[in-house]
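Design review, sub-item: ligand-bound model
Attendees: FS, YL, KQ
YL presented the inputs for the NDP complex:
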Amino acid sequence: MSTRLVLVGCGHMGHAMLAGWIASGKIAAHEIIVVEPNEVLRNRAAALGCTVAPDAGTLPQDLAPDIIVIAVKPQAIEEVLAHYTRFGNGKTAFVSIAAGTGVATFEKILGDKTPIIRCMPNIPAAIGKGMMVVFATDRVTETARAFVADLLSASGEVATIDDEKLMDAVTAVSGSGPGYVFHFIEALTAAARAAGLPDKTAARLALQTIYGSAVMAVESGEEPGVLRQKVTSYKGTTAAGLDVLMGENGLTRLLTETVEAARKRSIELGS
Ligand SMILES: NC(=O)C1=CN([C@@H]2O[C@H](COP(=O)(O)OP(=O)(O)OC[C@H]3O[C@@H](n4cnc5c(N)ncnc54)[C@H](OP(=O)(O)O)[C@@H]3O)[C@@H](O)[C@H]2O)C=CC1
Ligand SMILES: O=C(O)[C@@H]1CCC=N1
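KQ shared the predicted structure:
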């Protein structure tokens, strides 16, 4: 069977998505070529059954994939795309997961008739629990949109946006968000240690509390604020803790500043 998809870059995010696609059966490993210069990461992709290549120069001359997924760092995009211009202005759709880099950059290098999709995934895609947000240009056919949406659904939930400018905010919230949550686990663990708990107990209590609360927020169908109130006894311990966390300089303000810093960085990466 012919190659349907070329994945360029198989690091943290590329591999997370690739593994989910293959496990879902939505695409077969032998329909995928992975281009990755790092030998260890290339071997990891080969172990999934994909054909692998160290660089674009070794790709077959007659290659005509439906999709090329660009999963390299934003700083490398322009240099990398220069090796894929032969696929531009044609039927091959380019899907980029790079933060910041806008459609305009792709069109400048590949040609303005190239179908381009931007997707902002997040790392829980590695376990099929990702948030995948998609923006597609008018050049992208319904068939290509449907194929990409179906493929991405193997990695988690899929949402679409119609305004590319929102991609910076999306990146700052769901793209980077797992980093904030992992840090929240670290911070609660540190606080538990400071409160006198042994290291292992501190880590276990923090992780299970965040896991249990997140699953409950998803599965109960209740608003987080309602769930919070169920924990908060009148003049009790939670109220005392939340007085700090929900105070003027509390978590909402901190997260607003956090998201804004990430959004600004996304804009910088794209300029
Ligand atoms: N990590 C995350 O949680 C998320 C990442 N993203 C986006 O995904 C993209 C990749 O990020 P991430 O996976 O974390 O980064 P990684 O550095 O883990 O992966 C990128 C990979 O691309 C390889 N690479 C470099 N040049 C080429 C080339 N010419 N051809 C093929 N592969 C190449 C790199 O190899 P080498 O290291 O040898 O240079 C590396 O293995 C970024 O644009 C990022 O913005 C989006 C959402 C979430
Ligand atoms: O940190 C980054 O720039 C990438 C994009 C979103 C998550 N990781």
